Amino acid sequence: MADPNTTAPDLATENARIRALYLEAESDLTDSRREGDRLRDLNAKLAAAISRYDQYRAAIAASRDEEG
Fold first, then answer.
1. What value does the mean pLDDT take over residues 54-64?
2. Which of 21, 25, 23 is nearest to 33 (CA)?
3. What is the mean pLDDT of residues 58-68?
4. In angstroms, how far apart are the furthest CA atoms of the chain?
5. Which of 48, 45, 41 has the alpha carbon at shortest distance from 33?
6. Could you please report the per-residue DSSP string of the chain?
7. R_g of the chain, CA atoms, integer Å
8. What is the pTM of this model?
9. Measuring CA to CA, how many Å separate 12 from each of 4, 7, 8, 19, 41?
């Protein structure tokens, strides 16, 4: 038998808490997507820099071969 001294949960308060948690999770998800996009952009820039560096090294090696 239920204890008559206990109160039922305040549904409006619980709803507000759940909504706040949902909005926080939604915001975190949006932030993580933006961070993922930023990391992809950085990765592409890094790959381009490495490619240019490799081309530079190859050009130096080729010029040394021509000299030697």
1. 93
2. 25
3. 87
4. 97
5. 41
6. ---TTS----HHHHHHHHHHHHHHHHHHHHHHHHHHHHHHHHHHHHHHHHHHHHHHHHHHHHHHHHH-
7. 30
8. 0.58
9. 21, 14, 12, 10, 43
Q: What is the DSSP letter of 6?
A: S
- Give the C-alpha separation, 64 to 53, whole Å: 17
- CA–CA separation, 21 vs 16, rounded Å? 9
More confident residue, 16 or 8: 16
Neighbouring CB atoms inside 10 A of 57's CB total 10
CA distance 37 to 33: 6
Q: Could you read off the pLDDT of 15-35 as tens digits, one per residue? A: 999 999 999 999 999 999 999
